[in-house]
């Protein structure tokens, strides 16, 4: 990121004036939080639709069912990761790498009775090498052969975040989202939103001349032609798991 000191900056004021402006903004922030709480309350009241619990996926030990992926817990959150079969690691989806890679500590979800898993839309043996290269440890399955069933009514091949509920041996879909909805998985953008320059993307409402570096060459998702978070792994000597054929 540029350290150019010629970038525009906000007006400089004294502490009292700064706090007064922040206090006014805090009112709006709290209203935003309460609005989000109301949306979450409505989400909890959505109906649900049954999904075939025996739908097959592929895991580390071979074939499993959708029911198996709950790992005995009551709820499941599945991220349907995009995959480009036969393509090198540098050409895998930078957005999926950005979002899925931020899901790390799962013990709190488990304590709440929720399993998180990646349902990759590529072949298991190929795609799990990518997970291991990235240093991720979430459960990983291939949904390639069942994506048409699991993503009924949605665009197969695109990323989706889907929530499920288990009732005994029956499975129900309770919610799904994609696009900016998957920002629920993200911490990086949330922290950027707190900073003076924000995400630096073209759509943002920022003052004139504010930097827009987040829209250049894939934004923060991509650096030097690769998903950004691949570079620390390569610099530590982890071999590229999907070299060009």
Key phrases:
single chain; 245 residues; two-stranded antiparallel ribbon; 7 helices
Brief write-up:
This protein has 245 residues and is α+β, with helices and mostly antiparallel strands.
Blueprint (SSEs and pairs):
Blueprint: H1 15-44, E1 49-51, E2 56-59, E3 62-65, E4 75-81, H2 94-100, H3 107-111, E5 114-120, H4 124-134, E6 140-142, H5 147-150, E7 160-167, E8 170-177, H6 188-194, E9 222-223, E10 226-227, H7 230-235
Parallel strand pairs: 4-5, 5-6
Antiparallel strand pairs: 1-8, 2-3, 4-7, 7-8, 9-10
What does this structure look like?
The longest helix is centred in the first third of the chain and has 30 residues. The protein has a six-stranded mixed β-sheet with strand order 1-8-7-4-5-6. It has seven helices and ten strands. The radius of gyration is 21 Å and the shape is globular. The model has no long low-confidence stretch (mean pLDDT 94). It starts with 14 loop residues before the first helix and ends in a 10-residue tail after the last helix. Strand 9 and strand 10 form a beta hairpin. With 245 residues, it is α+β, with helices and mostly antiparallel strands.
How can the largest sheet be summarized? Answer: 6 strands, mixed
Q: Strand share of the residues? A: 15-25%
Strand order of the largest sheet: 1-8-7-4-5-6
Mean pLDDT across all amino acids: 94
Question: Shape from CA axes?
Answer: globular
- Structural category is alpha+beta
The separation of the N and C termini measures 33 Å
Helix content: 25-40%
Low-confidence stretches: none
Please trace the helix and strand order, writing H or E for each element: HEEEEHHEHEHEEHEEH
What is the alpha-carbon Rg in Å? 21 Å
Number of extended strands: 10
Number of helices: 7
């Amino acid at each position: 990121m540029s350290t150019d000191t010629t970038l525009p900056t906000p007006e400089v004021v004294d502490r009292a004036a700064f706090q007064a402006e922040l206090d006014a903004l805090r009112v709006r922030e709290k209203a935003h939080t309460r609005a989000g709480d109301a949306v979450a309350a409505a989400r909890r009241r959505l109906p649900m639709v049954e999904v075939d619990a025996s739908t097959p996926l592929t895991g580390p030990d071979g074939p499993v069912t959708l029911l198996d992926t709950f790992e005995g817990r009551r709820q499941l959150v599945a991220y349907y990761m995009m995959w480009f079969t036969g393509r090198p690691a540098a050409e895998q989806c930078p957005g999926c790498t950005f979002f899925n890679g931020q899901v790390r500590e799962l013990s709190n979800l488990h304590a709440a009775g929720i399993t998180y898993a990646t349902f990759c839309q590529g072949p298991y043996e190929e795609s799990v090498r990518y997970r291991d290269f990235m240093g991720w440890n979430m459960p990983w399955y291939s949904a390639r052969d069942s994506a048409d069933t699991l993503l009924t009514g949605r665009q197969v091949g695109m990323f989706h975040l889907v929530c499920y509920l288990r009732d005994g041996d029956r499975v129900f879909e309770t919610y799904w989202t994609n696009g900016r909805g998957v920002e629920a998985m993200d911490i990086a953008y949330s922290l950027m939103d707190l900073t003076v320059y924000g995400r630096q993307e073209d759509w943002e409402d920022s003052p004139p001349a504010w930097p827009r570096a987040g829209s250049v060459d894939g934004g923060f998702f991509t650096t030097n032609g690769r998903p950004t978070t691949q570079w620390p792994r390569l610099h530590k000597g982890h071999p590229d798991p999907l070299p060009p054929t």
